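User: Could you walk me through two proteins back to back? I'd like the raw sequence and the structure tokens for each, with a short line separating them so I can tell where one ends and the next begins.

Assistant: Of course. Protein one, sequence then structure:
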Amino acid sequence: MPRIPADEILIAGEFRRGAGGPIRTVNPADGTLITTVHAASPADVDEAAGAAAEAAALHTWRDLLPHQRARVLYRIGDLIEEHAAELSALQTADTGKTLTETRALALSAAGTFRYTAAALETAEDSLTPARGPYITMSVYEPIGVVGAINPWNSPIASDAQKVAPALAGGNAVLLKPAEWTPLVSLAFGRLVHQALTEAGLPTALLSVLPGKGSVVGDAIVTHPLVRRIGFTGGTTTGRSIAHAAAGKLVPASLELGGKSPTIVREDADVEQALAGVMFGVFSSSGQSCIAGSRLFVHRSLYDSFLGELVERVGKLRVGPGTDPGTQLAPLVHHRHRDAVAAYVDLARAEGGRVLCGGTVPEGPEYSAGAYYLPTVIDHLPNSARVCQEEIFGPVLVALPYDDEDDLVRQANDSAYGLACGIWTRDARAAWRLARRIDAGTVWINTYKQFSISTPFGGMKDSGLGTEKGRDLIRAYQRQKSLYWGTDATPLPWAN
């Protein structure tokens, strides 16, 4: 993969310096400067949107047959896989994540493009049942220009989940990566640019426009040429985007926050549950919308389970993402680390008991990084702020429950409804609980497993609409009905 120039972003199919202010990208493992990138400006967004609209309207793109467009998607997937090691190293430097996780994210992005290509090749329009002297058909067409706005925690996987179906649907995309982590999205943009160039297609089909959400994000969302918005991020920003989309009468999909319950029933396999609970909240250093950050354990198991959990959490290895032995890498930014620490201080103030962690690790190897120890807290009611608000860090709050009704009441007593984990040997109880819990995804005796073939979305303040799944492309298209008259007799009203 060509080395990324220090100060170029992808605007309207060309790599050049953005007209916005400088973005200093910092390695959260040691605080060192990686590079400086100039953000996009509103004028850059306007230029990119105009070029995207022209590119999307060209017959050389809009009229490509599905298998021809799929060939481009397959090529992008192959390029991502070919450069997975470089993409992984870049993302680890930019986000702090472990190399194991960032490689998996890169390969997931490649798989997303391949699955989307396969779905595109096999997608069908439909012949609907006629109710008169006509043949009725339902067909799908491109929307035009799509705005895709992603967070910093899993950039390349999130990028693929929006860009792949948007391109498959025949659209052009304005992609805005998070201000803190623009580098892997820009590298991804270079690979897409390469695939488009090889295919002789307009490169303005994708722009990568880093910058502040309040500047670049707003410019994308409010631009009159942007006819659909896909957003992953915080609920407050999601509400603002939903209002803007409603004002323009354009569709928006919103994948927002979570405060997901993970449930240990009295009949659970304790060893399996212990490993699953830790992975569910502490992998990715807790920086995941689906993190199982509220632990509900049946009262009969509560003390013994929590005691063993705390002992194991205390042994988790904290270190840089480049160390193969690291289980918890640094948080993405020092400011974010401080925000997580403030929530733990709040828990103490609310009467919570910090059973382990609750501070930054000691030692010179940690002093310059954005590290925070994995933390377990109890002695708080479900109404406490740290039980209700998304912390987005390695912080687990444990609560006991007495019976299923008590459990469901507490688990559903949340503004969010993104995910849930259930640990039990009882299949009937698992089914019953899975249907009663307000969550878009429920894992039973596992956690944080994903498939591009399975729809993903949230309930309540966790979002609107879904990503992934067999129909992922249709969300980036508009539906049209066609009526073909079969009766040669004139319509009767004029007779």
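----
Protein two, same layout:
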Amino acid sequence: MSPGPVSPVQTPADAAVRTLADPDTPFAVVDVHKVRRNVERLAARAERLGVTLRPHVKTAKSLDVAALLHAGDRPCPVTVSTLAEAEAFADGGYPDITYAVGIDPHKLPRVVALLRRGVTLRVLLDSVEQAEFVAEASRRAGLRVPTQIEIDCDGHRGGLKPDAPALPEIGRILHEAGCLDGVLTHAGESYFARTAAEQRLAAENERDSAVAAAERLRAAGLTVSTVSVGSTPTAHAAEDLTGVTELRAGNYVFFDLVMAGLGVCRVEDLALSVVVTVIGHRPEYGWILTDGGWMAMSRDRGTAAQAQDQGYGLVTDLAGNPIPGLVMTAASQEHGTLTARDGTRLPELPLGTRLRVLPNHACATAAQHHGYHVVDSTRTTAGAQVVQAFWSRVSGW
């Protein structure tokens, strides 16, 4: 896979931006070199495992980022978390979309509208009640609403257990309406699998659960076309996906400190960061204050449950080089507090110094910003990194 060049997408407000020293802080930065490397890694794995890769675009919510997933060729299948995302990506030319959140009746008119446009939009459900209202909506609209049954492989969230008594009934209702597409599962507990062995077991269980559910439906005489699995940890741990047709993941495009803490990636692979400015010092407390609080980083503290708590994020210099021991340990709405860890001496960082903070949860941090200033870490400069483009997040949420 060889993604194409970066396409500069600039707004008038960004026209004067030349380096990371120019925009007002805080702002989000994406390293396109790291994105490409992360994308190629999972694409190669999916190809080796013989499954279709259906990336989850909820992390970046950006057509510019998504373009790197298919190297400018025909748009790839994608997964979304909201109908606003589905509509925005449909507008952007993506015709094959899975809406991977349980459906409810009031959303069906928007689903039908997309289907009438020629978009293949799959919906998700896990109850007889949902199956009945989807089947009825399909009949009223006079078109097929492709539907997947959510399977609970680990008790993390919604879905049916593979041996649930209701599974064949739900499948039959959808089948008779021409709506049954397949099954889908997500190993949410894999985000707590702390070793490579635990992650492999989570991937095996995810596969086995989805395949078992599909086989139960087939044994009942129902056609199951799609067997969909995936999370970022299990996608990178899976070694055998026999019986599976597609693999989903989203966080892997940017990665984050939670994934690094699990060993799914390295800190050097993190493609998203937030640029902040030093605005104050409280030496009596051992604090450096910045203008990037939880409104810039999010409130996510996902590493708190890991062996190494990374606070609200690890701190690097403007070039992306980690500053040893410096962590964002506290946040108010617009203020970030940096402290030195484990006896490390607090560095001297004058007022106005720009820093970058690596996030705990890339999806949550990305959601705080309207877009990304794009740099390429392979292009070295004497000063601050050159901004190559501005990638907007698509509108609609």
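Confidence is low (pLDDT under 50) at residues 1-13.

Let me know if you want the two compared in more detail.
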